[in-house]
Amino acid sequence: MPYCPRCRTEYESRITLCSDCGIPLTPELPPEDFGKDPVVVLRASTAHEAQIAAATLRAEGIPAYTASPDVYLPQLGNPVATVTPEFLVWVPAEAHDRALVVLSEPPPTDAELMEAEQAADPEPEIDEPIEP
């Protein structure tokens, strides 16, 4: 099966380009080179926030990792009311500055998301507005 060397997604053998990255697929995944130890770029207050941040970074070509929410569940029962769990997002050390820039950008508006969706899928769905 071919793989995207950037986002590491596996595709069916008939596919030649990554649908997300737009780059040619390779027959094997290149080894991940993490370089230095990963660094924390976000201390999220919820698992959802951490997962969205990691997905946003990966969409920009930055390897990002966060622990599964299951890892944090024992902390949720902490009897100290002022202690809340932190959900960490890590990136390779050399991607730290770029990751901070990506995470500091405002999220896309609903109109921008709709425009991106329509650009990727020119056939509108039933619930999508059709522009005149």
Provide an overview of this structure.
The chain contains four helices and three strands, in the order E-H-E-H-E-H-H. It is an alpha+beta fold and 132 residues long. The protein has a three-stranded antiparallel β-sheet, with helices on one face.
Q: Based on the structure, what is the oligomeric state of the protein chains?
A: single chain
Which parts are unreliable, with pLDDT below 50 for 5 consecutive residues or more?
Answer: none
Order of helices and strands: EHEHEHH
Task: Please report the total strand number as a whole number.
Answer: 3
Domain module count: 2
Neighbour order of strands in the largest sheet: 1-3-2
- Give the C-alpha Rg: 18 Å
Structural class: alpha+beta
Using the alpha-carbon principal axes, give the shape: flat
Calculate the terminal CA-CA distance, rounded to whole Å: 42 Å
Q: Biggest sheet, open or closed, and with what strands and sense?
A: 3 strands, antiparallel
Number of helical regions: 4
What portion of the residues fall into strands of 2 or more residues?
Answer: 5-15%
Mean pLDDT comes to 79
Helix percentage range: 25-40%
